[in-house]
C-alpha cells in the first residue's frame, strides 16, 4: 500500500513537474511568438513599404520601344517612364510564358517552380506580402495552373485578393475570363484585351483598393502574344505594321494607367516595374507554321542586337526590356547594365515590404534593393542560368552543345558544339571563344551544373 501511495505521490509530483515544464514551454512559446511578431513589426517599420505596380507584357522584343531602339514604333509613355526611372539593359525573364510567370511569382528558376504546372505548394510573393498587410490584385494572363480552372492553383489561392483575367494564352485567337474563381465570359476580339485589362487595373485602383493598405497590382497583358490585334483606334496607325499598332496601343494604355496613379496621389510611393515574360517570336519556323494571323501582318517583335528570340537560350530568348520607376528613390534617367532578373523580385520585395524570404526551399533570387536605389552599381547578382542549356557569369556566357529548346526556337545556323561568348564585346553571340578559353568554359560548365541542380 505504502509503495502504491508512494507511487501516487510520485505520479502527482511527475504531473506537477510536467505542468511546470508545460507552463515554461508555453511561456517560452508565447515569448517566441511575441519575439517573432516583434521582429516582423520591426522589419515592417524599417521597410519602405511602397505600393508595387508590375506591368508585364507577353513576348515583347528587347528593342520594341523607341527608348530601347525601335525606329518604327512610337512609345512616348514608356520613353517617359525610362526618363523618370532606371532602364536595365541586362535584365532576364525566362524564355517562355508559364515558366517565366512561375519564376517571377516565386523567386525560383522554372526547374523548381515548374512553370505551367506550378503546384499549390509553391509560395508566391503575393502570399507573403499579403501577410504583412498589403492588398494584392492580379489582372490578365495567369498561365501557371496548366491553363485550367484548378482552384487551389489559381490567383486567389496563390496570394491575390482580387483576380480578373485569362488562365491561359490566346494561340487560338480566343480567350475565356475568370473573375476570382468564377467564369466571367469570353472573347475572340484580341484587339480589345489591352484596353480591357487597363480598365480593370484602373477600376481596382479607384474602386476596390483599400486606402489604408499598400497594394500590389500585377498587370499581365496578353499582348503581344499571338494572335495579336489592336483596337480600331490604333489599327493601321503605326509605321511598324500590326505589331507596331499593338505596341503603340500598349504604350497609350499604360500611359492612361500611370495617369490614374498620379491622379490618385500614388505616384511618389509606388514602385512601377515594366518588363515582359520572354523574347519575341522572330523565328521563320514559327512564321511559316502558325495559322490564324490577320492577313499580311508581320507579327513579330524586334530583339535588336540579340540572337534569336522566344524559346531560345541565346540572349534573344531571355533578355528583355525592363524599366523601374520610384520617384526620389530609384535614380531617374539612369541606364544600368547590372545583371538583374524577375527571380529577384521576391527577395527585393521582402526587403522593401518587410516580409521574410521562405527558408524551407531554395530561392534563386537575390535582394536587389541596393541596385534599385542606386546604392550599388553592380547589384547582388553576377550569374544567371538558362535552365540547363547555358549559364552566364559576369561578361562570360557558356552554352552546351545540345540545346533543349522548343522546335521553333532551334537555331538552324548553329553547329552542335559548345559555345563561349564575351557578352560585353559580342552581345549578338557570334564569335565563339570556346577554343581560346577552355578553362573559362569548364569553370562555367561546372557553375551551370551546380545552379541548375534540383534542390
Ligand atoms: Ca510569353
Share of helical residues: 25-40%
Radius of gyration: 25 Å
Number of helices: 12
Low-confidence stretches: 1-12
CATH superfamily of the largest domain: Alkaline Phosphatase, subunit A
The secondary-structure element order is HEHEHHHEEEEHEHEHHEEHHEEEEH
Instruction: Look at the structure and give the CATH class of the largest domain.
Output: Alpha Beta
General shape: globular
What strand order characterises the main sheet? 6-5-4-3-7-1-8-9-2-10
Our count of domains comes out at 2
CATH architecture of the largest domain: 3-Layer(aba) Sandwich
The span between the termini is 61 Å
Largest sheet: 10 strands, mixed
Report the bound ligands by name, code or SMILES: calcium ion
- Compute the average pLDDT: 91
Structural class: alpha/beta
CATH topology of the largest domain: Alkaline Phosphatase, subunit A
Beta-strand portion reads 15-25%
List the topology elements.
Elements: H1 2-46, E1 51-57, H2 76-84, E2 86-92, H3 97-106, H4 110-113, H5 125-131, E3 135-140, E4 162-165, E5 175-179, E6 182-187, H6 193-208, E7 215-220, H7 241-263, E8 270-276, H8 284-289, H9 315-318, E9 322-325, E10 334-341, H10 345-353, H11 369-372, E11 383-386, E12 390-393, E13 396-399, E14 419-422, H12 438-452
Parallel strand pairs: 1-7, 1-8, 2-10, 3-4, 3-7
Antiparallel strand pairs: 2-9, 4-5, 5-6, 8-9, 11-12, 12-13, 13-14
Helix pairs in contact: 6-7
Calcium ion (CA) binds at residues 58-59, 97, 225, 277-278.
